[in-house]
Amino acid sequence: MGDKSLQKKNRIVEAAREVFYQNGYRAVTMKDIVEACGISRGGLYLYFANTKELFEAVLEQENQTVLKAPAAKDANPGEILLMYLDEQKKEILKKKGNLSIAIYEYMFENKLSDNDLPAKKHFVETVKMLEQLIADGVAQEWMVCESPSEAARNIVYTLEGLKVTAQTIGVSAKTVDSQIAYIMGTLGMVIK
Amino acid sequence: MGDKSLQKKNRIVEAAREVFYQNGYRAVTMKDIVEACGISRGGLYLYFANTKELFEAVLEQENQTVLKAPAAKDANPGEILLMYLDEQKKEILKKKGNLSIAIYEYMFENKLSDNDLPAKKHFVETVKMLEQLIADGVAQEWMVCESPSEAARNIVYTLEGLKVTAQTIGVSAKTVDSQIAYIMGTLGMVIK
Amino acid sequence: MGDKSLQKKNRIVEAAREVFYQNGYRAVTMKDIVEACGISRGGLYLYFANTKELFEAVLEQENQTVLKAPAAKDANPGEILLMYLDEQKKEILKKKGNLSIAIYEYMFENKLSDNDLPAKKHFVETVKMLEQLIADGVAQEWMVCESPSEAARNIVYTLEGLKVTAQTIGVSAKTVDSQIAYIMGTLGMVIK
Amino acid sequence: MGDKSLQKKNRIVEAAREVFYQNGYRAVTMKDIVEACGISRGGLYLYFANTKELFEAVLEQENQTVLKAPAAKDANPGEILLMYLDEQKKEILKKKGNLSIAIYEYMFENKLSDNDLPAKKHFVETVKMLEQLIADGVAQEWMVCESPSEAARNIVYTLEGLKVTAQTIGVSAKTVDSQIAYIMGTLGMVIK
DNA sequence: CATGAATGAGAGTTCATTCAT
DNA sequence: GATGAATGAACTCTCATTCAT
User: Fold this and answer.
1) What is the mean pLDDT of chain D?
2) For residue A60, what pLDDT is reported?
3) Total domain count for chain A?
């Protein structure tokens, strides 16, 4: 695939992401995408055979941006955790809508077939990262936690819950802040 | 609507629930329901005009079963909380699939229009119930918690996260147990 | 068919007429009629098998009222003609809509099959009646007309044209009056 | 829309006209049209969204042919009028059926919504044209008429009546001829 | 007789997908 | 490669008609 082709593919994915943001996964049709990116009907099929492939391309692009672990060398684990949670806060409150529901729809639909879902990997990696962070925090006596593994999972589940709730019944910035403070509190830390 | 009519309606909702369980909300067509309950095409429309109405009927029936608050008079708040979480565990691990994703799809689709979503009420009531429980637990010195309100919300978000994760990348019974233990732990309680 | 049956049938026809007035012939469904007369679905079928039969019943009832020839014994032909035209004026301007379009739809649909349309008879009789009237008027020297037969037809066609126009692009009372005056004028009469 | 597209659209309208001729307006379904032009179900929707749009396209095409005013420079008003009436005679007697009933159905159905019906314009223009013709005829002493305006309207109503009657109970060529002669007679002219 | 639930045929409409240009 | 017209499968919804009660 040439450079120009790649550019075009990227433009399609860009437009598609918008559409998935607005409408979730299942409600999106190839027609929607075609209209959103001003490409020809047949043209789209040259690059993507169906909305599944398109959504996977969107997810891939997404992960490249999102997965950047919080890295500030001179920060202590507590500060890094807080930075991560603040990043997640933005994700949760994104006005345009985040992809949560769409991802759930996608995963629900492809539950049976794919066993090694990238989402699973993403989940596991996030848990591992947080667990390490908490373990470090405990070791350096910034945090108090008997089970860093469970605490890490709990954070991820809470964030998932927040994301989904934000997309459905809504969540205020204040609520997210309180939850972040609560999470920090359970780890024995206080936000100044 | 006569008694028999009501019975039929119930039978339809029963069949519809199965279909929503299997396929979520958005992917379900009236045709699916028709086939699932062995009724005629037109017959279904006699009772429900579209999948939205059908899904709402399913939710209503669901709420009647689910909303039964945990009530054991001689149990202390900690025990009641544990009972509630065990109930939720069953919900999370339901083999047939629970309605979480379907509900999210439904809410996502109807986000703008309905302001007084029953789901919102359900959310608020659950939080209130848990908050009361925790406040009682603290007052009776069974629990330790500085902010019962945030703790209650945190539980709800965690459970939401678990439900959704269960329906997508999967969650083991052990994981749920650990999370329950963790939650109890953050409230200063230990499961024997 | 008992007396009660007949009453019911009449009530149905009454309701049906309203429906045909509002919607013409072709757009009317059995369901419309059922809803309009608050009878049961099956009940309607006991009396009428389809909208055609219903419409014919309406027409029959209509003809009984409408066909009453203008009869005022001590009036001269010119006065009788004017009375007839005034009667037709009411028909043309009926606010609720008259049956013209419905009748055309009905006749158009049943053009091929029925050869001895009651409408044809009605048309012929009306022409005959007017022709006689004009012939009398000429004989008694109230009117001037070389061809009473053509004049009679012309009146009927004009009235048909007015009825149809009234139901589509609309016709004012003034226009109808002018046309009546014009018709009388062509017969050498002047409306005082 | 390309040239080819336009050609296809025209072919559809052509086929649709046949269908409307045969069946009127209300009885026609998109399926009928699809079958009549050997196009695919979805293909038709590429060009027309419903029978209303289709019918309007037919009318438009029709008007382009029909509206050609009778123009013979060296003819006197009486001759021109006669030419016009002869043209109308053809329209009235068209064996395939003319569109009268269909137009009435269409107008009846869209009575309330559209205020500036093209049909109204057509009506007004025709009246104006005839009125001018008669006024000229009177001025040049070919005709005798006290109220050209009413005479013009009368002609239009009579022709409408004839068209409709032709489509329902039927009208013979002789009848149309007689009516034309009668109309000319009322204007003081005699057909040789 | 009367009811109205139930059926199924058929109309309207949308889209994924193909293919000639 | 790129286009967009064309196809047909699939879905929604409405009604005429029947039939058990």
Assistant:
1) 89
2) 87
3) 2
Among A107, A146, A157, whose Cβ lies nearest the Cβ of B168? A107
**Of B87, B95, B55, B86, which Cα lies nearest the Cα of B68?**
B87
Core vs surface per residue B99-109: b (16+ CB within 10 A) or e: bbbbbbbbbbb
* Closest Cα in chain B, distance from residue A99 (Å): 11
Q: Is residue A191 part of a domain?
A: no
The closest of B171, B167, B121 to B25, measured between CA atoms, is: B167
**DSSP secondary structure letters along C85-123:** HHHHHHHHH-TT--SHHHHHHHHHHTTTT-SS-HHHHHH
- What was the pLDDT predicted at A115? 62
- Strand, helix or coil for residue C169: coil
Is there a single domain that holds both residue A75 and residue A129?
yes
Per-residue pLDDT tens over the stretch D119-154: 788 899 999 999 999 999 999 999 999 999 999 999
**Residues D92, D71: Cα–Cα separation, whole Å:** 20
Q: Which domain holds residue A9?
A: 3-59
Q: Say how far apart CA C111 and CA C103 lie, in whole Å.
A: 12
pLDDT higher than threshold 70 for residue A7: yes
- Taking an 8 Å cut-off on Cβ atoms, the answer to whether D24 and C178 are in contact is no
d(CA B121, C1' F8) / Å: 46
The reply to whether B89 and B180 lie within a common domain is yes
Which of D59, D79, D97 terminates a domain? The answer is: D59
Does one domain contain both B74 and B141?
yes
Domain identity same for A73 and A131: yes
Give the domain CATH number at D172: 1.10.357
Q: Do residue B9 and residue B53 come from a single domain? A: yes
Closest nucleotide (C1' vs CA) to C50 is F16
What count of Cα atoms within 13 Å lies in the side-chain half-sphere of residue D140?
A: 13
Q: Tell me the CATH number at D21.
A: 1.10.10.60
DSSP code string of chain D: --HHHHHHHHHHHHHHHHHHHHHTTTT--HHHHHHHHT--HHHHHHH-SSHHHHHHHHHHHHHHHHT-----TTS-HHHHHHHHHHHHHHHHH-TT--SHHHHHHHHHHTTTT-SS-HHHHHHHHHHHHHHHHHHHHHHTTS---S-HHHHHHHHHHHHHHHHHHHHHT---HHHHHHHHHHHHHHTT----
Judged against a pLDDT cut of 90, whether residue B112 lies above it is answered with no
The residue type found at C68 is K
* Structure-model confidence comparison of residues D3 and D107, the more confident one: D107
Average pLDDT over residues B109-135: 84
Query: Would you place residue B44 in the very low, low, confident or very high pLDDT band (cuts 50, 70, 90)?
Result: very high
pTM: 0.86
How far apart (Å, rounded) are the C-alpha atoms in residues A125 and B174?
A: 19
| C77 and C142 both lie in a single domain | yes
Average the pLDDT over B5-25 and give the result.
93
Q: Is residue B191 part of a domain?
A: no
In this predicted structure, the answer to whether residue B93 has a pLDDT above a threshold of 90 is yes
Query: Looking at the structure, do residues A55 and A93 belong to the same domain, yes or no?
Result: no
Q: Does residue C125 fall inside a structural domain?
A: yes
Domain end among D17, D35, D59 = D59
Within 13 Å and on the Cβ side, how many CA atoms surround C26? 22
Q: Which of A5-19, A98-112, C109-123 has the lowest mean pLDDT?
A: C109-123
Residue ranges of chain B whose CB lies within 8 Å of a chain A CB: 24, 26-27, 101, 103-105, 107-109, 111, 117, 119-120, 123, 146-147, 150-151, 153-154, 156-162, 164-165, 167-170, 175, 178-179, 181-183, 185-186
Both tokens of D178, joined, read 């007689």
User: Closest nucleotide (CA of B43 to C1')?
Assistant: E6
Question: Do D37 and D132 lie in a common domain?
Answer: no
Is B164 in contact with A104 (Cβ distance < 8 A)? yes
Per the domain annotation, does C52 fall within a domain?
yes
Q: Which nucleotide, over all strands, has the C1' atom closest to the CA of C40? A: E3
